[in-house]
Amino acid sequence: MAAPLQAADLGTFCFMPVKTFRPLTPSMRYSTYLSNGDITKSRPEKSLVEIRKKTGGRNSYGRMTSRGIGGGHKQKVRKVDFKRNKHGVEATVKAIEYDPIRTARLALLEYKDGEKRYILAPVGLEVGAKVISGETAPPETGNSLPLKSVPVGLPIHNIELSPGRGGQMVRSAGGAATLMSRDEGYAQIRLPSGEIRKINEICYATIGQVGNLDHFNVVLGKAGRSRHRGIRPINRGVSRNPVDHPNGGGAGKSKSGGGWQQLTSPWGLLAKGYKTRHKKKHSNTFILVRRDGRPMKQR
Prior knowledge:
Layout lengths: L12 E2 L3 E3 L12 E2 L14 E3 L24 E3 L12 E7 L8 E6 L4 E5 L9 E2 L12 E3 L8 E3 L1 E2 L6 E3 L7 E7 L2 E5 L5 E5 L3 E4 L15 H6 L58 E3 L10
Antiparallel strand pairs: 1-2, 2-3, 4-5, 6-7, 6-9, 7-8, 10-17, 11-14, 11-17, 12-13, 14-15, 15-16, 16-18
């Protein structure tokens, strides 16, 4: 009888920070994992978490409104401070933590008065660093200040759309926007998608690029890792029967909807080439260049 495999037998190769494995099993051939070398605290701060109840894609009536959702590992929601409204009070970074719900890492801050808060951990923010928010804060990594105080050309994240509402844009791993210019009370921001947008210059943003840059290099490698995330399998519409989907049916195998029909959702909404943004949406006036590089048509 063969001896059980040990950790050293798995042949882990770490190219900082993505780990790969020797293909001892079919799933290990393609699976990649992130190294947790940047995480300094394994358990979250108890006062800053709450239980997340899973819905399975059902609404309050018990009806399925989102398909492909169910199961997954138990998770707790971290209460992240997107507003950074504790102005003028210096905080110390106590730990860098993992968040199961988002792609970015979290930094645990402890203020001088003893209060603790989570923020998104930018690149270069380490344990022991000092951060502060407010109009007089220096433009350094991790500090939060209004756009009118941010030097032009710096990378920023966690950007507010409305003053005082809290950061809503550029919050995922590796994300960074660029402050291009300021004019007539508005700042022009180039978002990661390439879109250039006007934002009120009194809105707050955080200096730096969101950390965990190698998140996009992770390959799940097997179906089970999707199920751990609460993602259930969904088969294609063209492989179903006509009673189950508008794209179903046909004499034999049909690619791309069978040729004559337009691909739709199960409820008939066009799936390809159909513009879903309203032509007269209010926020169109704040978009200067769309993410495809074309200028936005103003009303």
